[in-house]
Amino acid sequence: MNFIKKSFIIIGILILIGVISIAGINFYMCHSTQKQFSSDIKDADCILVLGAGIRNGKPTPMLNDRLEQAISLYQDKKAPKIIMSGDHGKDDYNEVGVMKQFAIDKGIPSNDIFMDHAGFSTYESLYRAKEIFQAKKVIIVTQDYHLYRALYIANQLGIEAVGVSSNPRDYSGQAMRDVREVAARCKDFLTCIFKPEPTYLGDAFPVNGNGDDTNDVAF
Question: What is the pTM of this model?
Answer without folding.
Answer: 0.95
